[in-house]
Known about the structure:
Elements: E1 4-8, E2 11-15, E3 21-25, H1 31-38, H2 43-52, E4 58-62, H3 68-77, E5 82-86, H4 93-103, E6 109-112, E7 115-116, E8 123-129, E9 132-140, E10 183-190, H5 192-198, E11 206-209, H6 215-220, H7 223-228, E12 233-238, H8 240-244, H9 248-263, E13 266-275, E14 281-283, H10 289-294, E15 299-305
Parallel strand pairs: 4-5, 4-11, 5-6, 7-10, 11-12
Antiparallel strand pairs: 1-2, 2-3, 8-9, 8-10, 12-15, 13-14, 13-15
Helix pairs in contact: 3-4
Amino acid sequence: MRRLLPLGPGELLAEAEWGGMLVVPAWNVDVAIGVARDGLHEPWTTRLVQELLRPGDRYLNAGANFGYFVCLAGRLVGARGRVIGVEPNPHIVPFLMKSLYWNGSIGNTEVIVRALADVPEQALTFHFDPQYLGGGAPRSVSGLAGSDERDFATPEAAMWGPATLPQMLDAQGRWIKGIGLMVPFEARTATIDGIIAQCGLDGLDLLHLDIEGSEAPALVGARTLIAASPRLKLITEWSAGHYANASATLRAAFDAMWEMLTGLGYRVRHLEPRLAGDGGIFVSPPLDRAAMTETAPHGDYVWSRVEEDPFA
């Protein structure tokens, strides 16, 4: 039987199906709930990471949250491997740090508290709802915008409760599911190329990005790494809606990313959110640019060079 233990106020120690131990925020209902209840988060992506990583590999996960994929990778790559977890949210990084100790993978893992972009050392204002940790996103690229009058100063103030309930109801008293109680925080940017150099690596084997539509500029900031890593595979969150609703700057970043990756021989497949009876995964045929910008559903996508494509 999997273990689930209270550690302190708002903290649970949860045992994952793959054997790791994670410190999860008990108040979170999107990412943490699956780990606490089922021992798994995104089982199809979990299986994909398990299939792609080998002992001694090098892995970077951005949008690391409280450390689910970072801890999984730490066990898969072993003492000879290297793992980098990138997470800008100072309210969740302490959970990531504790997870690494409880998981026993602190020795092979680095934690970088930055937001990925194509330009380093920019100030960004983010906001997030503590209940929905997977949905934090930049609010301003300048870092100078004033606080929204609806913002909460701390995660504790933004918790579901009698004081915040009126902001979650419509005029008829019905709960508006998914509405955010937002807490702002400041972060600075880094490029993937800069982080790889900082950590003393000459390449990666798997780059895994779950950063709410900012994947394209992050990959533009990884040009040197991608060109120098012939075995590198990518996992990115994406949807055609990210492109349809993007600013001109973000569209230009996607166009630059697409040109760079396809020019290096990459092709992309959608990872379907289901598992076969034997635990196997399902991926789509390779997708073209029109599919990625017009019809691609929200989910995870795996990128491989043609000669390294495990699904060919």
